[in-house]
Structure formats: C-alpha cells, structure tokens
Amino acid sequence: MTAGVILSAVMATAAKTPHPQDDDPLTGVRVGLPASWTGRATPSESMEILVLAGHADSQGIEGAGTSGAAVDRGGARPMDARMRDELFWNRRVRDAVVTTGQARGLKIRSYEPDQLTIANEEDPRTNWSVGRRHHDAGGYVLEIHFDAYGRHGVGSGLIPNLRSPATRIDESLALNFGRYPINFRGGLGAPRRGISILEIGKLEGQLERALRAPQSRNAVVAALALRIVEAIELGIGETPGPATQRLSSPPDADDNVPQAMDRRTNAVDG
C-alpha cells in the first residue's frame, strides 16, 4: 500500500463516524458482541479528564499487552525494545489526545508511571491506583489500548467503567468506536476501578502497517487523537440527536460474555 493510500484512509476515518456494522477503513473490525448499556450521566463542566496508556506499568509481567502481529507473526523488530508494541502506541496516542484536547480547550491531562514494571497492582503509582483516585475525586478516566491480533482480539470499542454510571463521554466514544458489553470478561481490573477502556483496534493489518510506516505514522496518530477528542467534546456537549442515537446498540442485548482463555496477548487483560 502506498503512502498516499494510507494517508487517504487516515483522513477518511478522521472525518466521519462509521456505521456500527462497518469495518473502519483504518482501525478495522469493530466489536460485534451484544451490548445494551447507554451512557447517560452528564459530565460536569469542571470535570477533569485523565488519559492513561494501557499496560504502562506491567511490562515483563502478566498483562504486558500485545506485541502486535508484525512482531509475533512477521518477525519485525519491536518499536522499542523495553516494551511491547502495544504500549509504544498506547503512549503515542495518549500524548496526542492530551495535546490535541488541551489545544481545543479541554481540561485534560495524562499520567505516566515512573517505572515500566510495578508488580503490585495496589501500588499507588500504578495506572489502576491513580485512575481510581481520579475517578473517586469526580474525574473521568480513559485508558488507551490496542487490541490483540487474530482470534485473541475482538476489535475496536469502548468498555465503560463499572464504578459509576456510564457517562455521555462513554456513549460518544462507543458510538464512534464500538460498544463492548459492560461486564466484558466478568469485569476487567481497570473498569472495576473507575477507568473506561478504549480499544482503538486490533494491532494487525492496515492499522498496524499505517502506524509502523514512517511516512504515515504521525498522520495516523494525529487522526486517531482527533477522533477521540472530538468524541469527548461531543460527550461533554449537548445530548446526541436522533441521527446519532440510531447508532446505539439494541436494548434487548445480553451484556455478558465468557471469560477468554488466553491471557498472554489480550490487550485488555489487567
């Protein structure tokens, strides 16, 4: 695929919200699991948004995130030898979301643990601990992820936090990226601590190629960040109108799915 084709796909996916049943031209397959939740809680104007990079404190231990198809299947070199490729891209997108959001006037910031490996999940420096404190103080917490490739991954989508009712920010992100069941895999560690998880897409195929290609990398990250920020802005603004509401999941769906068996490469294992 040429750089021009990649960049065209990037701009196309930044410009519009895909239909729930369509694969996105950049991020690929969207979650197809039944889900019935709707985010209705209205964020306050003073709410601060905290953005985390998934797996930022779990490198080299269980829950390190996916290496991506390029490394595991294609034999490519990791983007950074210190970490799985997922964390490399999680961090890049996190930083771009915060930079873009601040430039557009959002009250938004990031957090980066001071170590890549913190074995104790209750350590006050972990994503989970910092995210829980931020949530309990009245903030909104979003953790960026890329899903596992192949059969271990599900696709793009939003997994809302389980510590409080889903917000209109959650709803807007779900309409834009896809909607996971609220109790996905029995309730993941981050959502149980008040952290919503955004799976941008499976780390494979065109998305991974576009991220890895030097000529398109910055444009891809910028497009993804803009799409996330615009969804957040919509969630903070007025209630979505009828055209947006048509994209919601059916009201009679079941929110429970079985626990996955393979935990090694799944991007949402905590």
Provide a concise account of the structure shown.
This protein has helices spanning 3-15, 69-72, 85-103, 127-136, 168-177, 189-192, 205-212, 217-236, 242-245, and strands spanning 49-53, 108-110, 140-147, 157-159, 196-202. The chain has 270 residues and is α/β, with parallel strands linked by helices.
Polypeptide structure, described:
The structure is a single chain. The protein is an alpha/beta fold and 270 residues long. It has a single domain (37-242), classed as Aminopeptidase. It is built from nine helices and five strands; from the N terminus they run H-E-H-H-E-H-E-E-H-H-E-H-H-H. Strands 2-1-3-5-4 form a five-stranded mixed sheet, with helices on both faces. The longest helix has 20 residues, at 217-236. The chain is globular and about 45 Å long. It starts with a helix and ends in a 25-residue tail after the last helix. 50% of the residues are buried. The model is unreliable at 1-6 and 238-270 (pLDDT under 50).
Draw up the topology in text.
Elements: H1 3-15, E1 49-53, H2 69-72, H3 85-103, E2 108-110, H4 127-136, E3 140-147, E4 157-159, H5 168-177, H6 189-192, E5 196-202, H7 205-212, H8 217-236, H9 242-245
Parallel strand pairs: 1-2, 1-3, 3-5
Antiparallel strand pairs: 4-5
Question: How many structural units, i.e. domains?
Answer: 1
Query: Major sheet: size, sense and barrel closure?
Result: 5 strands, mixed
The total beta strand count reads 5
CATH superfamily: Zn-dependent exopeptidases
**Could you say which structural class the secondary elements and strand pairing correspond to?**
alpha/beta
- Based on CA atoms alone, the radius of gyration comes out at 17 Å
CATH topology category name = Aminopeptidase
The count of helical stretches stands at 9
Question: Can you tell me the CATH architecture?
Answer: 3-Layer(aba) Sandwich
Euclidean distance between termini CA atoms: 35 Å
* Helical residues, percent: 25-40%
